Amino acid sequence: MGIRYTHEDHPVGVGRYGDAVNDALAAARGRFGYPDVALFVEPGRALIGPSTLTLYTVGTVKTLPGLRTWVSVDGGMSDNIRPALYQAEHEVIVANRQGSETMVPMTVVGKHCESGDLVRERAPLPDDVRSGDILAVAATGAYTASMASNYNRLTRPAAVLVSNGESRLLMRRETMDDVLSRDVSLR
Question: Are 151 and 112 in contact (CB under 8 A)?
């Protein structure tokens, strides 16, 4: 079952999906004489994906007039590999303040110095995005944390549960000591 990663996405709803599967099973039972079965579907992405977002801090904003504006952030492909693997797109917004009403397409890039380290190409963002802003990347639940890595020896971010105005640390931020803990000294 798909989820809405950007405002352009319109995935099939859970009810419609279930109806289509039930109709197909009923047709197969009738056509082939299959027995009645109980079907269970694990809707993990449909539950977790939309409930999670990733926060990045903007490092630099670089505009080449008439060409493109790049926004660099303090994460990237090590904590969300999906855009690099299969061009997944996530909605990106400025989360720490009300931005300008003038939206322009910007390429949000990570800190890994790789051509594929894109958080999102042509993200519609306010034209006044600046260093220090917080960008929220929507629908990063389900697979993002489980696919995170220490690419380029970067630490993985913390995970925090927020509910009803309360927050609770679920997974602490990795330290460099964590990353280096498996290294063996050659002395």
Answer: yes
Q: Is residue 113 part of a domain?
A: yes
Q: Give the three-class secondary structure for 20.
A: helix
Residue 170 placed within a domain? no
- Say yes or no: 58 and 138 in one domain: yes
Do the domain assignments include residue 169? no
Token pair listed for 136: 């929220």
Q: Which residue has the higher pLDDT, 89 or 42?
A: 89
User: Same domain for 104 and 136?
Assistant: yes
Q: Which of 37, 38, 64, 113 is catalytic?
A: 113
Q: What are phi and psi of 30, to 5 degrees?
A: -65, -40
- Helix, strand, or coil (residue 108): strand
Alpha-helical runs (H) found in 33-98: 44-48, 82-86
Catalytic, 124? Answer: no
pLDDT tens for residues 37-76? 777 777 767 777 778 899 999 999 999 998 999 999 999 9
Among the listed ranges 40-54, 90-104, 110-124, 129-143, which one has the minimum average pLDDT value? Answer: 40-54
